[in-house]
Amino acid sequence: MTDFATPADRTAFIARLPKAELHLHIEGSLEPELMFALAKRNGVSIPFASVEDVRAAYDFSNLQDFLDIYYQGMAVLLTEQDFFDLTSAYLARAHADGVRHVEIFFDPQGHTERGVAFDTVIGGITRALDHGQARFGITSKLILCFLRHLSEEAAEATLDQALPHLARIAGVGLDSSEAGHPPAKFARVFARARLLGLKLVAHAGEEGPPAYVHEALDILGVDRIDHGNRALEDAALVTRLAATGMCLTVCPLSNIKLCVVPDIAAHPLKVMLDAGLAATVNSDDPAYFGGYVNANFTAVADALDLSRAQLVQLARNSFTGSFLNANEQAPHLAAIDGYTG
User: For 35, how many CA atoms within 13 A lie in the half-sphere containing its CB?
Assistant: First the structure.
């Protein structure tokens, strides 16, 4: 075993390692227990009889299987307090995992199309982020995601709704069904977001081909790639990503749950690190995929026998790949050095 006498030693090292999380869908942190509590509070009928039934349904063979149940779960989120409770629950778990900074996605179109006001969604989330910073010292940035299975016109309308809230929105992203919905489909709305001063990210190379990563870079002009696994199929693309230091927000347990990778021992994270890619470890939709950030770190570290140096690099990447400025990153990087020195 590299650097650690036992797996328990590695798990303990990960638990206290300062880290940021850059790929987290707040709606995907809706645990079954909270889903049932909110359904009862709001008088919403859900197609599950128990928490156990919900967990049994979390058996996905692809991204679309997951998305179908993901959107069903959203139905219980109706009030600002619901979004506050959802976000607060995630922040408590993140704090327990040694997370010091989060950059979370939210999907307003998944709520506004149900009649929930944009202001309701962002009001509850941002109130919880402020509360989380006061309670735990966790800093945060909020990224509005466009649902790529919808039209670019729908994305434009969502960006219009966001305009009064730009002081609380750091960037825009692109998620939902990747296959058949290339990044180029959203070229104009991303260009507009860039002019508004927003950071740009996009899911690319999860189920979609390396060409989607090229489009995210060349057409959307993204600052960060979410997932990016399939970039490894294109050697020139790997060289480019390494040379530019482009951050990849990798989600190991998500990749296994959605059958993007056959098993954790085959996960490409170590290959990414060996290729000089700025990979990070994140939990994606942890309520659905079986674990928050430390569970992802531990699973992939044990399966790939990651060294202490590699774990530290992943933690450093999570801050240098964040949208914190250099002065804001500095104390976090110093904390890593202090912990590992």
Answer: 26
Active-site hit among 27, 31, 80, 206: 206
Q: Indicate if the pLDDT at residue 286 is higher than 70.
A: yes
Rounded CA separation 55/58 (Å): 5
Distances (CA, A) of 49 to 41, 67, 177: 16, 20, 28
- The pLDDT tens digits for 238-269 are 999 999 999 999 999 999 998 899 999 999 99
Instruction: Give the whole-angstrom CA distance, residue 38 versus residue 43.
Output: 8
Integer Cα distance of 265 and 94 in angstroms: 25
156 is catalytic: no
- Give rounded-to-5 percent helix, strand, coil for the chain: 60, 15, 30
Mean per-residue pLDDT for 264-287? Answer: 97
Looking at this protein, which amino acid is placed at residue 34? L
In the block, tokens 């979004």 appear at: 83
The model's pLDDT over 315-336, given as tens digits with 9 standing for 90+, comes to 999 999 999 999 999 999 999 9
